[in-house]
Amino acid sequence: MSPSPVAPPALTLEAFRKECADLLAGLEHPPLGSGVALSEECGEVAKILLDVHGYGRTLDPAALAGELVDVLVCIAEIATAHGIDLDRAARTKLDDLARRAPAWRADPVLMQALAKRRAAAAP
Asked: What predicted TM-score, i.e. pTM, was given to this entire model?
């Protein structure tokens, strides 16, 4: 009987950033190039979403996942180049959203607009 496979440990954003930096050391884009690469990868995500939600094509979850992770790789490269701790930055943003989201939910105009969009998007 073979042993059960052991799941790898959870990956933090900062661990992902560090591993990308190690794997891609010496292959980094110049600073402006990393921003252009991020824009390109975001465009590839947008293309998949347009194909699925605009043209009715079937979603390929693996393709979308691959493009989303390409975006993360670009973000990791930019964070490394500028000394950003992604775990700390993500926590700061989540704390900010936790403070702001209740006001958004309490805004009847916003909630009505979102409800209309959801209804229009429903099959």
From this structure: 0.84
